[in-house]
Amino acid sequence: MENFTTAPELNHTLGVWTDYSIQYKVISSLLLFAICALGIVGNVMVILVVLTTKHMRTPTNCYLVSLAVADLMVLTAACLPTITESILGSWVFGHYGCLFITYFQYLGINASSCSITAFTIERYIAICHPIKAQFLCTLSRAKKIILFVWAFTSLYCMMWFYLSDINELVYDNITIITCGYRVPRKYYLPIYFFDFGVFFVLPLLLSAVLYGLIARILFLNPLPSDPKDKKKNGHNNNTNNKRTSCKNSRHSSSTATSRRQVTKMLAVVVILFATLWMPYRTLVVVNSFLDRAYLDSWFLLFCRICIYLNSAINPVIYNAMSQKFRAAFRKICCCGRKGLDKPAAYSVAITYSAVKDSSMVEGTDHFTTELEELTVTDDLLPDQKMMFPDPCVYGKVNFSDA
C-alpha cells in the first residue's frame, strides 16, 4: 500500500510534533482490529472449506482461494502494522520489517487484482463459450494460472525491497521513525500510475465488458431446452420420453438459476473492489499533482478502512449469496461434522450444457468445471422435502396403465 511519508531533508526540523488524539487512537484501533479479525477468520474459513471439501474444488473456487490468500496478506501486512502505528505514532518493526511488510502489502494488493481478473475471464468463458469451457476452465488449468499470477506478482513487487526504507523525521521535541521511501516521492509517480492503470483501471474495464456480455447471455437470452428432446416428445408419448423431458426441463432451469447466482456473487465482489479502493486510489492520484500532499489523518483512516474492509468482506458475500458456501461454513463452525466431503443426497450437480460424450475428451479433469452445486440443505427444507409433488413421478403411473 502506498506510503505517503516523504524522505526528509537532512538537518532540517519539521516543527513541533503533535501526537494523535486519544479519540483517534481509540476509534482507529478498535475499527481496524474488528475488520482485521473478521477478515482473517473469514478468509481462513474460505481456504479451509475449499481445501477440505471435495465437491468445493472447482476452478472458480480455486480463484477465490487465491483471492482469500491475497486478502489475508493485505490484512496481516497492512492492517496490523497500521493498528500499531496508530497507537504508538511511530514505526516499531525496524528496517527489515519495513522492507518485508511493504513487499507483502503490494504483493497482496496486486495478487488480489489479478485473481479477480482471472475468475472474471473464467466466468466469461464458462457462460458464453460452454463447449470450450470443458477444455479451458479445468481445475488443473486454474491451478497453473494461479501459480503464474503469484509468480508474476512476486517478481514484480521485488522492486520494493530496494525502494523502501525507514526514515527519521526530526521534530523540535521528538524524532519519529517511519517506513517510507529512499528518495523523494516524485520519483515514485511512474510506478504508482503504472500500478493504478494495470492493477485497477484495466481489470475494472475488462470486468465491465465481460460481465456485460455474461449478463446478455444469462438475463436476456434464456437457456434453450434440448431440441432433440422436443422432437422426441412431439412424436412419441411413451413414459420414458416424458420423464426425460421433465428432467431436462428441471436441469435447464437449475442451470440457469445456478449460473445467475454465481455470476451475481462474483459481480458483487468486483463492484465492491472498485468502490472500496476508489477513495485511496483517487487520493494517490490527486496527491501526485499537489506540491503538498493532502494527509488529513481522519481521511487517511477512512481510506485505509475501505481497503481493509474490501479484504475482509468477501467471505461475508460468499455466505450471503451462495448456498454451497453457507452450508460448508456451517459445517466448519460445527467442528466438521461427518459428511463434509459429501454433498447432500438430494443435491443437484450443475454442469455446463455441453456435449459430454465427445470423443475428444480424454480424462475426467475436463468435467470439473461445474458452475455451482444447487444444494438443498436440511435447514432449507426441514420436514417438508416432499411437500410439492413431482409431476414426473405422478405421470408414470397413468402412462404405464394406458
Automatic annotation (TrEMBL):
The chain crosses the membrane at residues 26-51, 63-83, 103-125, 145-163, 191-214, 262-278, 298-321. Its main location: membrane. SMART domains: 7TM_GPCR_Srsx (SM01381). It is found in: Cell membrane. Residues 42-318 form the G-protein coupled receptors family 1 profile domain. Keywords: Cell membrane, Disulfide bond, G-protein coupled receptor, Glycoprotein, Membrane, Receptor, Transducer, Transmembrane, Transmembrane helix. One of its GO terms (biological process) is phospholipase C-activating G protein-coupled receptor signaling pathway. Residues 229-258 are annotated as: Disordered. It is a multi-pass membrane protein. Receptor for thyrotropin-releasing hormone (TRH). Upon ligand binding, this G-protein-coupled receptor triggers activation of the phosphatidylinositol (IP3)-calcium-protein kinase C (PKC) pathway. This is Thyrotropin-releasing hormone receptor. Belongs to the G-protein coupled receptor 1 family. It holds the Pfam family 7tm_1. CDD domains: 7tmA_TRH-R. InterPro entries: GPCR_Rhodpsn (IPR000276), GPCR_Rhodpsn_7TM (IPR017452), TRH_rcpt_1 (IPR002120). One of its GO terms (cellular component) is plasma membrane.
